[in-house]
Amino acid sequence: MGYHRDVTRTLPAGGVAEVVISDDATAKDFDVRLPDDEERAVARFATTQLRARARAARTLLRLVAASYLGCDPAEVPIRRAACAFCGGEHGKPVVGTAPMHANLSHAGSAVAVAVASAEVGVDIELPERTGDVVRLASRFFSPDETAWVADAVEVERDLRFLRLWVRKEALLKATGEGISGGLASVGMLDPLPARLERPTGSLSFWTVADLPASVPAVGAVALSGERLEVRIVSLEELGLS
Ligand SMILES: CC(C)(COP(=O)(O)OP(=O)(O)OC[C@H]1O[C@@H](n2cnc3c(N)ncnc32)[C@H](O)[C@@H]1OP(=O)(O)O)[C@@H](O)C(=O)NCCC(=O)NCCS
Predict the structure, then answer these.
(1) What is the pTM of this model?
(2) Which residue among 104, 125, 130, 200 is best mutated to probe the pocket of ligand 1, counting the most ligand atoms within 8 A of its Cβ?
(3) Helices (H) and strands (E) in the chain, counts
(4) Domain assignment of residue 11, yes or no
(5) Is 223 a member of any domain?
(6) Ligand 1 atom at minimum distance from 95 CA
(7) Which domain covers residue 189, as residue numbers?
(8) How many domains in the chain?
(9) Is 25 left (phi over 0), alpha (psi -120 to 50) or beta?
């Protein structure tokens, strides 16, 4: 495994988000040394599995961002924005330098990184049994959305629940609010891409789209602005193999 520093990728144009997904990121060894503070953060996870996942996610985020910035992965600047609720330094990670924006999601051993030239959010979940999804939907979603989940055969219910969940979480990650922003507060029934007004700071229009069925997870992306085309970019295209 390795990466080629000679590949510098052009940032996506407005209205486009590029998404890199590795379905087995924890199994890869890219030979990247994380900055000391991130190594310490990784070491604090309780199990080998959690540490491997945390390191894989941070490594892939840095590798992807570096391939757009044309720098060494260890030199990608990452800081935390102020929390949208308390102002503390644990808000949305600010990755790279303007005009680049990036966001990360992990699920199991899969990691997804979205890159755009505007505020972006991504969320992935693995398509597995989630329990009583109608009860969960009634807790977290609107009555219309809960009815849409309930109005399906059992196996399709799980998928509908996850679809709504990732759309909502992608939007709330794009705005930086996180799920404290209220999953019920953003309506996410079809058709997508959905254009939504959400009065968060000076950016109020957002577009949400599903990741294509070809990717090995249920996922969605949200981008600031009124247009969104999602492009899946392979690790090979970024010079990562
Ligand atoms: C961000 C959040 C949605 C992540 O949910 P998740 O399903 O567990 O995780 P995902 O794999 O999709 O995303 C995790 C990544 O999102 C990014 N992230 C963290 N906070 C974020 C935020 N506020 N907005 C956008 N992205 C965020 C990080 O890169 C994180 O990776 P890390 O865990 O390796 O650091 C959830 O943890 C959350 O809502 N946090 C905010 C909690 C909050 O508001 N607290 C208020 C305290 S005053």
Answers:
(1) 0.94
(2) 104
(3) 5, 10
(4) no
(5) yes
(6) 29
(7) 16-238
(8) 1
(9) alpha
